[in-house]
Structures are given as C-alpha cells and as structure tokens.
Design brief:
By secondary structure, this protein is of the alpha+beta class. The chain has 2 helices and 5 strands. A hairpin with a 5-residue loop joins β1 and β2.
Length: about 90
Amino acid sequence: MKQCTHADALPHPEPKPLSDTCPQCLAEGSHPVQLRLCLTCGHVGCCDSSPGRHAAEHHKDSGHPIMRTHEPGEHWRWCFVDHVLV
C-alpha cells in the first residue's frame, strides 16, 4: 500500500483557514461544490467537482502537497503528490 511521504512535514498546529470560502470562486461568481484547506498555508479552495478546481490549482501553483476537507463533519486528508488519503 502506497503511503504519503509528506505528512511529517506539515506545520503543527495546522494553519487557520485564510477565508470562509473559495476566494477564486467568489471572484468568478461561481459556487464551490465543497471546500478544501491547504495544510501548508491555509488557502481555501474548491474541490475537483467544482467548475474551477481551485484546490488542485493551488497545489499545482504552490507545490503544497496535502489538503484536507473543509466540510463540517468530514476529517479526511489527501496528498496530491502521492495520490493517497493521509
């Protein structure tokens, strides 16, 4: 089973969200399907089911490897680099 090689490098405590919603969706006038929180810097972006896919775009632009769901009641994390749940 493949494991994430980036989780040990995450900041502790995890960063606070920089916004309540996806700022790119807000600027574009679109609505995010679900939100994701970058665990390196706190950027909030929309999921891959949203038109903008801004969380994945943030990873591509920044190289920050791990995000977590920013939805109430959900607690999973995803490593974009290793393509595994963390």
